[in-house]
Amino acid sequence: MIKLLIVDDDQMNCDLLQNVFTRQGYEVITATSGREGLSLFHTANPKVTLLDLRMPEMDGLTVLKEIRAIDPHASVIILGGGATEVQENQARTLRATDFIRKGLSLDVLVEAVNRVSQLPEQPADPRLLRDAGAMKQQIDETILVVDDEPLVCDLLVRFLSLRGYRVIGVKDGPDALRMVDEMSPDAILLDMIMPGMPGIDVLRELREKNYPGGIIIMTGSHNEELLEEAWALGPQEILVKPVDLERLLTAIQLVLVCREC
What we know:
The protein has 261 residues and is an alpha/beta fold. It has twelve helices and ten strands.
């Protein structure tokens, strides 16, 4: 029996959805707060999680960020009642499996859960099963993450830390340049669109400093002129947001290998 976790601060919604999906043959567990939901995710290991976006104390995006740190492949469907475009983009950046606005018919939600529940299990990453201290001894590279969105920055720091890298996150260009002067990271993940000092200006400064490490640009912009300007400054890769975390990990590995060569 497929296990389904429902996290919604409205008890009536939980009861309704539990009744619907129990009739569909799922084993359903519910939580009425983000913290309770995260605790149940730890202990119950559900195949699919239905996660309300707007909850007090710990909202859905925060819960999703924590889930991604535990399991980058977990199937999580966001219920986004009243969600803004920014919130929806943040959820997709955090690799929500699906995003469904509340108010749609139950049939749409049931179809989405049925579809997601049939997705094949992702193989466990053996690196996640090793002792964290041993991992850090095996990987000696340092990565600097530069992104003005705290949620995204924290996610990337935690995701890469779990892979054994030494990771530092900063929220703006001036802090990034200061960190480069202090510790010269092996690679930099650099957001292109930031207030104050855009990523393209940070990249230009790094080239003037003759920074020797690898640079991977992350951007939500499709402006061809801006992308051409960025490529002309010689980054190793440009990834369009929402960034696939496994693709990002592969890009980092390639950058670090090429740097050693």
